[in-house]
Amino acid sequence: MMLSAIFLHAMMALVVASQDTAEKKGKPNFIIIMTDDQDLHLNSLDYQPAVQKHFAEQGTFYQKHFVTMAQCCPSRVSLLTGMAGHNTNVTDVFPPDVLLDPYTYLYYNATLQRNQDPPRSFPGEYNTDIIKEKALGFLDDAAAADEPFFIGVMPIAPHTESPASSGGQAIPEFFPPIPAKRHENLFQGAKIPRTYSFNPDRPSGGSYVKLKPKMNDTVLEYNDEFYRLRLATLAAVDDIINEVFEKLEEHNLLDNTYVIYTTDNGFHMGQHRLDPGKACPYEEDVNVPMFIRGPNVPKGVTNNSTGNRCQSPSKSMRTRVLNT
Ligand SMILES: *[C@@H]1O[C@H](CO)[C@@H](O)[C@H](O)[C@H]1NC(C)=O
Ligand SMILES: *[C@@H]1O[C@H](CO)[C@@H](O)[C@H](O)[C@H]1NC(C)=O
Ligand SMILES: *[C@@H]1O[C@H](CO)[C@@H](O)[C@H](O)[C@H]1NC(C)=O
Ligand SMILES: *[C@@H]1O[C@H](CO)[C@@H](O)[C@H](O)[C@H]1NC(C)=O
Ligand SMILES: *[C@@H]1O[C@H](CO)[C@@H](O)[C@H](O)[C@H]1NC(C)=O
After folding, report:
1. Smallest CA separation from ligand 3 atom 13, residue
2. Which of 45, 54, 141, 238 is the one with CA 20 to 30 A from 263?
């Protein structure tokens, strides 16, 4: 059962490790930093020095980690429950959220709701930076409370900018993502890797890809700039990572905290001649970034065992977290 190995074992290792650590230091804390639509196969991680420094060097990279549904909500619910979409009943993208729809995918007008407070919008402020400030605030509160905690830090980067459609339909419009002002000129000249599956001369596969025309230079140029903008939005995620680790150190919490870095689904841009998007059963969409660092997790290791996130031990992790 290759497919189920990795998350199962990783989580069992965490639970066992956490039992060891628990005796010495109290129950461990968990932080999940989860991006939105981040690819593994288009090399976005190469543009994130903070991921390299804090996760690749200090934790384990599970390079054969797969999502069971390459679609935001079902994948997020699977990660938190350890159940597949057909068991959670979340099989589509109409969720409850902390960032509120239809404003979730706006880089400069986030709308958030905390507990029962009325929703609050932040026009003109950068979405990823707001998420960072909230996360750092929660970490201060958690440190002061001196109790084990679980924090999900889930920025929208590098998802598209998607205002609610002007026609009022459920399906929003999609535009390239918007980096923070301080990052907007980063990575000039970065191009989508021209891999074997990229805009191939001879198409293959099901009719929905086989019948697609080859992309012309205008489309390729648009997609390359779209790719650069995705990378630039991830620079603000690197700021989250750096500051979360600074905060953990400041509060002396680093030794007793597991930190996971992942995303909800991968992304394709021109592979198999597909326009930018996700939700297909191709490697680009389903094989995603996954790093874990924390007590007893090997450092600087790439683990090639195949796995996915729908494993019962993640339920036991959840139970453990909820019971702490
Ligand atoms: C890879 O991770 C799996 C799951 O945690 C573990 O069983 C296996 O021993 C690891 N492999 C190596 C080479 O460390
Ligand atoms: C999912 O829906 C089915 C059919 O309505 C229902 O029987 C089942 O209890 C639901 N499962 C969950 C986890 O809500
Ligand atoms: C920002 O979002 C709020 C909803 O929270 C909306 O009422 C407002 O019109 C939006 N402002 C801009 C500038 O888009
Ligand atoms: C390139 O392809 C796009 C999408 O198929 C099409 O709209 C556009 O007219 C084409 N441009 C040229 C210069 O052929
Ligand atoms: C995992 O695969 C990479 C190549 O992708 C290799 O460099 C590395 O040694 C492998 N790790 C293990 C533990 O086998």
Report:
1. 123
2. 141
